[in-house]
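Model the whole thing, not chain by chain.
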Amino acid sequence: MSRCARPHVPEEEFHAWLDGALSRAQSAEIGEHLLGCLLCRAAHADAVATRDRASALLALAVPGGIRRQLPGTRRATSITRARIAAGVAVLVVGGWLANQPATLALPTPRLSTMAFVAPAMDARFRDVGGLDGESLLDPGQLTHLAALRPQVVTSASLVTVTPRTLPLAPAADVDPAIGWEQITWDDALVAAGGSLARLEGLPVAGVRIQRNGSGTRPTFFVKQRLPDGRAVWVVEGPEDRVEPVHAAIEASGLTSSLALRTRHDYTGSEEAPMRTLRLVTVAAALDKDAVDALTVKLRLE
Amino acid sequence: MAFDLEGLYRTTYDSVVRFLYRKVWDADRAEDLAQEVFMRALAHQPEKPRSWVFAVAANIARDEARSAIRRRRHLVLLTHEPIASPSPGKEVEERMEQEERQAEVQRALDTLSPRDREVLLLWDSGLSYPEIAEQSGLAVGAVGTTLARARKRLVAAHDMLEGSSEPVRASARA
C-alpha cells in the first residue's frame, strides 16, 4: 500500500530529476517519497524507460561518423579551479579508502540515508600521492580519470547502462581529507549511536569517520565491495556536513546516487538533545541509473 | 575572461555537428555548417559561448533549410538519372538498414512541434536546463515539462511509424 507524505511526483519532475536538473534538496525529497510510494515508483520506472528510449532513438538519428557520445550521455561542464580542488580532496579520501584492507564482512543492517560506489578506484588513485594540494593533479588528469569510468556494472543486481557524466554540483569550500580517521565497523557503530548506513549483502572493507564535535552526529564513509571486487562507498552524516562532501565527490568524476534522508536523529546530551537530519547516498564511477539502483540495498543498522 | 575558441571547439564541436545533422540530415553539410558556426564565434567572441554557438547553429540550420528547398527544385530532375552502384553485399544491406532506422527516427522527430524538437535536441547536445531555457525562451521550470512531453511524443511517434511500416516490409519480403 502506498504511504505518501507529499503529493505524487509529477512526471516532468522525474525527468528533471533524471537529467540532474534538480537541487540536492529536491532530489532528496523525491528519493524519500519514492521509498514510500508504489505509484510514484511505477511512474518513475516509466519516466526512466521513456527517457532512455528517446535517448536511444536520438543516438540512432546520426550517422556513425558523428555519433561520438553514447545515448543519453551528457557533457561535463568545464572544470573550475574550485572543483579541481574539491576533486583532489576527494581523490585523497578515495585513495585512503582504496588502500584499506578488506577486513570486515558483516551481516547487513536495515534502511538508511547516503552512500558512494566506486569501481577500480585503487588503480585510478594510485598516483595521487600526498595531501599537499592541487599540484598533485591538473584538469587534464581529472578529465583522464573521468574517462576511465567503466562501461557497465557487472553485478547481476545492477542495471547494465552506459556511463554518464552529470552536471557537477557547485564545488564546496571544504577539504574532506582534513579530520578524517580510520576506525573499525564496531567503533563506527558505537560512534553512530547504533545506527549506521550500509549496503545490504556486501562486505565492509573499511570505515572512515569525521567527528563533527559538540554532540553533532559524525560523518561516515563506509567502504564496501561489489561481488566483482569493485569498491563502493556509502556516505552518511548530518545534512550540512554531507552535502559539501557529496559535491566534492561528484566533482572528482564519480556519480552519486539520489540522497536519501533518514528519520530525525536526536544527538547530544539528555539535558540538551539536538534534532538532526541525516543524508545517505551511494556514489561510484558508474552510470547514474546504476548507482541509484544500488540504493535499494541501503540498510540501517 | 579571454575567449577560448580552442576550448569551445574541443568541448562543443561534436555536439554542434550532431545538433546540425538532425536539422539538415546531411553529415557533410552539418560539418560545414558547424565550421561556419565556429568561424562566427571567433568573430563575435560571445560572453556565453556555449549557448551562443547553439543559437547560431539553429539560425544557420533554418537558413539552410530554406536554401535546401530551393536547391531541391533544381535537383529533382537529376534523380531520374541511373547511378552506378556497387553490388549489394552485406555491408550495403547493413547500411541500408541503418539508413532506414535513421529515416524512421527522422520522421518521428518531424512529428514533434518545433519547440519540443528544439528543446529535445538542445538537451541531447549537452545543454543544461538553464542554457536551454535561455535559448528557447522557456522558463527553466518549463524545460522539464517540455522535455517530458517531447520524449513521450518521439517514442510514441516512432512506435506508430514502425508499426505502420511493418506490413510494407512484410509484403516486400513476400
